[in-house]
Amino acid sequence: MKVLDFPLVKITIAFTLGIVASYYLHFSVSTITFSVLSGFTAFCIAFFWHFKYNKKSILLGVLSYFLSFCIGAFTIISHTEKLQKNNYTHFKSAFEKKQSLTLILREKLKSNDYSDRYIGLIKTISGKTYSGKVIVNVQKDSIQNRLIIGNSIKLETVLQQNKPNKNPNQFDYSRYLADKQIYAQIYCQKKEILVNKTIQKDIWYYCAKLHSRIISNLEKSKFNNAEMNVALALILGQQQEISQDIIQDYQYSGATHVLSVSGLHVGFIMLFIAFILKPIPNTKKGSFIKLASILISLAGFAIISGLSPSVLRSVVMFSFVAIGNHLRRNGNIYHTLLVSILLILLFEPYFLFDVGFQLSYIALFFILWLHPILKNIYKPKHKITVYIWEALTVSFAAQIGTLPLCLYYFHQFPGLFFVTNIIILPVLSFIMIAGIVVMIVAIFTSPPLFMTMIFEKSIYLLNLMIHAVASVDSFVIRDISFNYYHLWAFSLFIIGTIIWVKKPSFNKLTLVLGSVILVQLAFILTKIETENKEELIVYNEKNNTIISERFGKNIMLFTRNTADKSIKRRNINSYLVGNSVTLSKIKEIKNVLYFKKTKILIIDSTKTFPEKIKPDILILTQTSKINLDRVLENIHPKVVIADGSNSNSIQKYWKKSCLKKNIPFHSTKEKGYYQL
Known about the structure:
Helices cover about 55% and strands about 15% of the residues. It has 22 helices and 20 strands. Strands 1, 2, 3, 4, 5, 6, 7 and 8 form an eight-stranded mixed β-sheet that branches. Strands 14-13-12-11-20 form a five-stranded mixed β-sheet, with no helix packed on it.
């Protein structure tokens, strides 16, 4: 049976399309509810008619896919917490003035230089019951932080809405948090927090306690901090304390997936458990014992790793693979994957927009689909060459499949990814096995010194190899312009080519040639859009003023500090890469700029400007201590912009002055960059 002939494939595709459509088109609750009820009623009528008269009808299939589409749309709406009446986003006063909040700490996040960070679940606001997740930022000081997961805390504060990305083409952190149903943040000091003595002891509390116990016992065994942080990332998925230098090495060597506990790690565990259970005969009873052992082991690993989304996804995925193997349905492994996708998205539809989810499933799909073709190109005879060829073909299969997405999201390509995978897989296999043993021992007691030393040195060796590959800087291709058009065109080209290579035919060759034309069209459309675009952008820069003027492919940059060599790297680079443009010249800012027919006046700390000018836009920089009421009376601009070089306090006065005159006020600190 062909993959696409399996009914669940079409149902899963329709369900997924429903999620995507609802996410981007924002269907109303009433519309989707009516569609689901109508679709279900029509499906039931068609089903009973088909059952009664036993006649094949295309209508039943169409209605089943329509119903799947509607259920997908309904699923994401039902999981969007801000649409619920008791969500804190509906309490507008909480975003305007201080309110008394009670919340429970659910998860510890990576700390920054200024704050310890947690995810908290809101319980009440000013005595009224509300719900929803927020990020709690607790300012660091000399006092030891005694907050733990499960703590119920009370404080008076103002909710801060997630702010949009400050500069163009940067990572949209606000949208990322919204996809995790987090719509606000809290900033507070330790002295402002009242901790309730009662702790909510749920599965999250026990997972966090288990982590604390493991870390405490590892520290007692004198485990080196740098290696221990990598070990916690490799085995438990805890990247909170890992250094930025190590993360960068893994990125440049193409081994970032190693630090994120996902399919690779869960697959290792499944294979390890299967290897241990190999002596059990493959009878009906023996096969069931193997399956039960694998499922219990994977569930245990999910709990030990803190039930993180990436681990849960992989555990569900490989649990279905194990069930498929148990049922002797190896030929339908694609169907097993689809069942796991459908189940995961039913419970967490927002996972579909998670980069990790997309990369995990695409990588596994291409390993299953493309790896057999690559493997048969060459048949090595010696064990070492067999291992190297196997590692190479698996790496290339995964990399080819995920290449368009990686270029679209990260705009870089690690040229030595295949070298990395060949040299780290033996060490990583040992680390995973040794690490699981060490972590299990650390749950109960401090691991023996010899065990800790072996594990620590193996991680040190892994870091050393990763650093050696990452040091070959010339093989890391950065700043690759790759947009939405390129993503779809290259994806279709890769899929079409593989379909043609597997079983060549004229129709399939036509598909490949058609995808080549689409790739060319993607470049042509990108070039047309690039050359026809004209815009001026005021960036959000803390200690400088940056304005870019774009006409087609060339960018003219205006700045106060032309000697600052890091300007391009910090804020402009993401814009240049995202728009396929080049920086042609950097000039010093003057008081007056002209963009097409728009006159722009810039006032800085010197407060000097031509008084007779009547600008369309007024830009205030460097905390200029001018009397804005008087200036507005004289020049009457259409809009006032305050960039990131101004203090927060003075911007409040400027905002009030603009409100009096009914002039729009745009603060780049608050609203992000200004685009004309």
